[in-house]
Write a structure and sequence with these properties.
This protein is an alpha/beta fold. It has helices at residues 26-35, 50-61, 78-86, 98-105, 114-128, 138-148, 195-204, 239-248, 268-275, 289-293, 305-317, 319-337, 339-350; strands at residues 5-6, 9-10, 12-18, 39-45, 67-72, 90-95, 132-135, 155-157, 181-186, 211-216, 230-233, 251-253, 279-283, 298-300. The protein folds into two domains: 5-158, Glycogen Phosphorylase B (Rossmann fold, 3-Layer(aba) Sandwich), CATH 3.40.50.2000; 169-337, Glycogen Phosphorylase B (Rossmann fold, 3-Layer(aba) Sandwich). α9 links the parallel β12 and β13 (279-283). The radius of gyration is 21 Å and the shape is elongated.
Length: 352
Amino acid sequence: MRKILTATGPSEFVFLSLKGNKFSRAKNYHNGLLKMGYKSTWVEIDSHNKISQLLDCKKQHGEKNTTYYIVASPSHTLTLYARLVLLRKIYLDAGWPLSDGVVLSRREYGFLGVRALLVYLLDFLAFHSSSVIFLESTEQVLSVRTKFLLPQKRIVVLETGFNENRVKNKKSTRLVAKRFITFLFRGGAQQEAGLIVLTEALELLKNRKDIRFIVASKGFKVDMKDLANVTIYDEYLTDQELWKLYGQADVVLGQLSKHSRLKRTLPHKFFEAGYFKKCYLTSNIGAISEFADKGLVFGFTGGNSQSLVGAINELVDKKNTRAALGRKLGELYSQNFSQKKLTIKLVNTLVK
């Protein structure tokens, strides 16, 4: 079993997450630590019993100088409580500010902007209570430093990656030759997703018999009467159902808008596409544009359905391009963003 050894013994990692937060990016690193032989514990904290449960953690782990407490995204609110109760350094795997989701994505400002102010203050207190803050991209670091008045030395880029434990069988499900190229869009209906752009593109391409679209998005509504080449899954899919769709896809669609949040974020499906070695077509804006410029993903003008249609038509006609982009993105993922690579990056940051 592989362990990190210090002067006082092997290290232990304790992830603190609010109960009910099902989709924390920190699960990727927790599972990575376990796979590599490290001792890692995932603790779910009830929002009504934060103090008592944190005191229990202190009794079980708090006396060990080699224990690292990490608040998991998006449980930022636990950071201040953990700092006060545990009396230890607290590391926050933020990924991004809560205000990015509440304010920028969902536009939940509240009456006279009160909710937006409260979320900003929550972010501010969480960041300033943390010894180290992990964020998803260099662009996010620059934004957070300025917005929350933080020193550079306390912020580290740690990409979100993909929780590889979610895949039970990576074997491709495509067994027969196809007469069409399949484009997969999967994800929620946040503004940055650009579902309006997708809807317009589906209408423009409805007569293409050599293209098939799969849209897996809860709440996505479109008139299917004339869209014979579109399959919609308006429901939450299990992981294995979703990975089956990835197996059928030739191209994975990323975020399609020109939303300001895209300047700083790398979506989960970017890493999923890399893991499955799929060609990735995305709005060419912000953090993702670096990979488009390097020829690792295929970009188009975000928010422009005509540009998206042009990119789709080009990829349909260029099989070798699709294959090369999938291969290159897979290599990038393996070399930089795999579960193991990101876990090592986390450990190297915390254990000096």
